[in-house]
Amino acid sequence: MKIPRSHPRYDSLVRRERLVRAWKAGIVVPEGLIAHGRGEAWDYLFGEMTSAPALVAERAAAAYLLAAARPVISVNGNVAALASREVVRLAKMIPARIEVNLFHRSEVRVRRVVRELERAGARNVLGLRPNARIPGIESKRALSHRDGIFGADVVLVPLEDGDRAEALVRMKKTVISVDLNPLSRTIVDELTRAVLNLCKFVDELKPDETETLRVRRVYNRNGNLGAVYSFLEWRLGRLRRSVTRGGMRSKSASQPSSVR
Amino acid sequence: MKIPRSHPRYDSLVRRERLVRAWKAGIVVPEGLIAHGRGEAWDYLFGEMTSAPALVAERAAAAYLLAAARPVISVNGNVAALASREVVRLAKMIPARIEVNLFHRSEVRVRRVVRELERAGARNVLGLRPNARIPGIESKRALSHRDGIFGADVVLVPLEDGDRAEALVRMKKTVISVDLNPLSRTIVDELTRAVLNLCKFVDELKPDETETLRVRRVYNRNGNLGAVYSFLEWRLGRLRRSVTRGGMRSKSASQPSSVR
Fold it and tell me: From B139's CA, which of A105, A126, A205, B82 has a CA 20 to 30 Å away?
């Protein structure tokens, strides 16, 4: 199906097609499709745009990644499907290593994800020959590389469940999550938009160590998340008006005709 | 994977497993998995419970279904996967006909969905030999039965996009949607919970024509949807507190450790 560029939800529909394609290629698992749907719903609530507080978190995250001694980007199936190019670009700019870590891990799937990243220009992607285990995780997601996530001081973990992130924090790493679920603790934004913004901020902050230090110092996680929620409340108010006043959405019709 | 009953999100995880199983059986399509994910995110925001306004909408819907001359329940792949038993029970109680209507229609998939419903006790399920077309729909979803959706006066359309519902409203039918997306126009609730509540209200209202009439008369769609949004605002406030005060969620860890 060809989606016209003029479609108001073009980006979202392209992402969905990309994901279904990656699922057919064995890169994404069914659970990944469901997880993507969750993101779609949140992004719909966000108006499919980066909120101001997300931008602030992204600028802070860029500062943390730049100041890191051993920064690593963790990539799973959905990340590879949605934003391989963008992740590889970010990794080169910082520079950071990339490590593939899968919840539903199989050797063949790791290899497919690595290949997808290589196609997008990545070199020396870690993940195939793990030589360490993250303590406190029972699943295969504990498998990691000493040169990669295991030895990192700052880890970017997009689209992950909290368990491994928590285990990484217990290892005294700085963990930067990216997720549209507003319970996510760092960047509450859509992955592709977030990574593109990270690239922009890395580019801006790289020559300016003083500003990079200042950005890290002033970043207030709780204040930032509070602002994310204020944004969501504002969006909910807009949706409410569009629904209860009617007319703005094609769905206005799916009501009992006799009570219209 | 065996999910322990004590798990705080047991119902949601069981539904997810059910859906993945139905996808393996060719009843659910990949797009259905993504759509289910969207529902999961909304339900998470709703606290995985039926809101008071959803209950009101469900009681009104039960009244409309009972008062109908030719009520029909439309079933797609996700509905069959998640709530075949419940839908068949509701259809028998009203009584209403069941018609299978698929967005990604193929003969073999219609047959699988029909069989799934029959396994749950349904008889004379429509959908395999459509003899009419709903005007204004270009896709195969226009295909319908004169004895079913095409000729119905009240149609329950769970988990549907708005287009077909709108076309049915243009045919002067009363259309009752069920969806967790708060832009849904009638019942904003999780499918299984909604259908079980419909059963309960059908049971309660069936012997009481006066009350059934009253319920239909006093139902105010806009007021009800407004209350749904008020509920969501309250929920968002709770989530905000759980995130910004920290501690309540395991995900509290997935923040940069240096800014904890």
Answer: B82
